Amino acid sequence: MSNVLDDAIHKQLTKSGTSTQGVIGTRCYPAGGAPQNIDVNDGQYLTWQLISNPQRHHQGGNAGLSSARIQFNCYGKTPKLAKALRNAIKSDIDNFRGNFGDLGSLITVRNAYFDTERMASNPPQDASQRGPQFRIVEFVISFVE
Predict the structure, then answer these.
(1) Quick check: 5 and 23 in contact, CB under 8 A?
(2) Cα–Cα distance for residue pair 108/124, rounded to 1 Å
(3) In terms of Cα–Cα distance, which of 114, 112, 116 is closest to 142?
(4) Largest CB tally within 10 Å, which of 11, 55, 62, 101?
(5) What whole-number distance in Å separates Cα of residue 71 and Cα of residue 54?
C-alpha cells in the first residue's frame, strides 16, 4: 500500500472527534503492524490491508484516479465489541467525500463505500480463554492520485 494512503487511513480513523477514535484511540495498525503483545482485554483495535487498487484509465491514458479496496479487521473481546468498532468505522468512512488524513498524508476521496462484511474469531491461547472476536469489513475508497 502506498505510504500516503496508509498514513491517510491511520490519521483519518484516529483523528480527534471521529467515531473510530472514540472506540480505539490510536490502536489502529496496517497489516503486520500491530504489536506482538496486543490484547483485546485492553480494548478494541483494528488492522487494515490493501486488497486491490485498480487504476482508472481513459483513452488518453491514466485518469489519475484509484479505487482501493481496503479490508479492516475489527477486533473485540466479544462479538458485540467487535461490531461496535465496525459500526464506528462505517460511520466514519461510508459515503465519505472530501479530504482524508491531514497535511503530509492528505488524499482527496471522491467516494468511499461499505462493500462487504464477515465474522470470524481467533482460537483461544488456552482452555480458560475465549479467542478474540473480529469482523472483517471491506470498503472501496476512490481517490485522486
Answers:
(1) no
(2) 41
(3) 112
(4) 101
(5) 15
Q: How far apart are CA 106 and CA 121, in angstroms?
A: 34
Half-sphere exposure (CA, 13 Å, Cβ side) for 115? Answer: 15
What 8-state DSSP symbol labels residue 130? -
Domain definitions of the chain by residue range: 3-144
The CATH T-level fold of domain 3-144 is STM4215-like (3.30.2000)
What the block records as the C-alpha cell of 95 is: 459515503
pLDDT of residue 18: 93
Q: What are phi and psi of 59, to 5 degrees?
A: -60, -25
- Measure the CA–CA gap between 101 and 83, rounded to whole angstroms: 24
C-beta of residue 30 within 8 angstroms of C-beta of residue 10: yes
How many residues in total does the chain contain?
145
- The pTM of this model reads 0.86
